Amino acid sequence: MPQSFTGRLQHLVFLLVLFVAALHSAWAAKPEQLPALNIDVRETSISGLSSGAFMSVQFQVVYSSIVKGAGIVAGGPYFCSQGSPLRATTQCSCTLDPAHDLCSVSSNSAKVSTLVSDTRQFAAQGLIDDPANLSRQRVLIVSGEKDETVPPQVAAQLSDYYGQLAVRASNRSEVRLSKAAHTMPTVNYGKDCGVAESPYLGKCHYDTAKAILEWVYGPLKKPQQGQALGRFMQFDQRGYLPKDRFTWTTGMDNTGWAYIPEACERGEACRLHVVLHGCRQGQSYLPLRPVSGGGLYYGTTFVRNAGYNRWAESNRIVVLYPQAVSIPGINPNGCWDWWGYTGSDFPTRDGVQLKAIRAMVDRITSGRP
User: Fold this and answer.
1) Which residue among 4, 54, 87, 354 is least packed, with the fewest CB closer than 10 Å?
2) Residue range of the domain that includes 144
3) What is the DSSP annotation of 280-320?
4) Is 347 exposed, middle or buried, given 0-12, 13-18 or 19+ CB atoms closer than 10 A?
């Protein structure tokens, strides 16, 4: 096929995708504003899968003064990429498509000592909170033996990173699932546990959401059969982004989601858990094959089925689901920025995505008497 024709065809496909995306946005219900709830900001925790896991580590390090704990599923240490896409895709993960054989992940490929030194240097420059705050956080690390995208050696180096920054062994827990591929392990939703494909939710007979929340907050109340459900709300993310920057370049979608338990709506004291989806899991991502029940787009498949909401309802935990979006040619899979596609300040409090998520946290926790 002539190159010129191929180029024109690709351009037409791209324009069609943009047109469909515009229609999708136009048809969507008008987003709300995040409410100000009775939440102590120091009761904030975070978790994520894959790029969302790397981003969760960034958030817990950069804003360590407010984070109570974290759950990291298929993720690695802070600043693992050191701002290099090649390093991110070959030494911190095996995602350099299609040259998977170029992966050089090993037991020390992340160079943890260097990352610890970088962390301390960023803190000395005032770019992140004091890493000494990490010592009181509780962290659950989940990895899969069959994960070929973020191999378990990366998770092991994350644990080493925490150890070198004085996170007590009693505050760290590592779970390695023998049958899990690159997926968010659930009890019974999604593909087979050993399959790494959309929706990247796997029936692993393991309740990751419960395990994370319980590790961070202590014993949970079991969901009651027929319990009243709280409210899913789609909120406007644009107000948390720089007004002088085109939204598309931030890698963040126009809207995000939140789950508000009924008790929290009534003004009772609650806690906050932020959940970051992985690549190809954002609401506006267009999978090659539609997700069951998700329509043309990935939609709310992750938001509704990752397993957090039923535990959140019975334990007065608000769940915030920020949404990343694809940038053709730069971030086609809608990943969170853990290698620098939004700018060199991505792993600091000046990073556009971190700053936006922190602003969301500040808003939703601002209703405490």
Assistant:
1) 4
2) 28-364
3) T-STT---SSPPTTT-SS-TTHHHHHSS-HHHHHHTTEEEE
4) buried
Residue 8 counted as domain residue: no
Q: Is the peptide bond before 199 cis (omega within 30 degrees of 0)?
A: yes
Catalytic, out of 56, 93, 143, 147: 147
Q: From the candidates 50, 81, 93, 284, which is the catalytic residue?
A: 50
Which of the following is catalytic: 129, 160, 182, 277?
182
Q: Indicate the DSSP class of residue 34.
A: P
Residue 35 lies in a domain: yes
Q: Are 205 and 172 in contact (CB under 8 A)?
A: no
User: Token digits for 363?
Assistant: 């808003």
Q: Would you call 130 a catalytic residue per the annotation? A: no
> pLDDT (tens digit, 9 = 90+) per residue, 322-355?
999 999 999 999 999 999 999 999 999 999 999 9
Strand, coil or helix: 271: strand
For residue 5, report the phi and psi dihedrals to the nearest 5 degrees: -65, -40
Residue 16, domain member (yes or no): no
CA distance 249 to 51: 18
Contact criterion met (CB below 8 Å) for 103 and 96: yes
State pLDDT tens for residues 42-66.
999 999 999 999 999 999 999 999 9
SS3 call for 317: strand
Give φ, ψ of 231 to 5 degrees: -120, 130
Q: CA–CA separation, 241 vs 250, rounded Å? A: 8
Count how many domains the chain has. Answer: 1
Predicted TM-score of the model (pTM): 0.91
Is residue 129 flagged as an active site residue? no
Partnered with residue 200 across adjacent β-strands are none
Q: Which two tokens stand for residue 303?
A: 């938001």
Classify residue 369: in a domain, yes or no: no
